Amino acid sequence: MEAVEVVVDQEKIDCSETAYVDSQYEYLLKNKDKGITLEELRRRRGVKP
To answer: To 5 degrees, how large is the angle CA 37–CA 39–CA 40?
Structure first.
């Protein structure tokens, strides 16, 4: 009898996108007392929505 290998297609995660989102979250947490919103952060970073 032959051995059968089952390969499961796993979803790949884009680490650069994950790191970017994490950096946004950390920045907003650190500056929440200043009232900075995500939209304000995007304007400061020059990112189009």
So the answer is: 65
pLDDT digits (tens, 9 = 90+) for 1-43: 566 665 555 555 567 888 888 988 998 899 889 988 888 888 8
Angle at 16 between CA 24 and CA 37, to 5 degrees: 15
Q: 49, 42 in Cβ contact below 8 A?
A: yes
Residue type, 31: N
Q: Which residues contact 36 (CB under 8 A, 6 or more apart)?
A: 27, 28
The residue assigned the tokens 């994490």 is 22
14: enclosing H helix or E strand: none
SS3 state of residue 6? coil
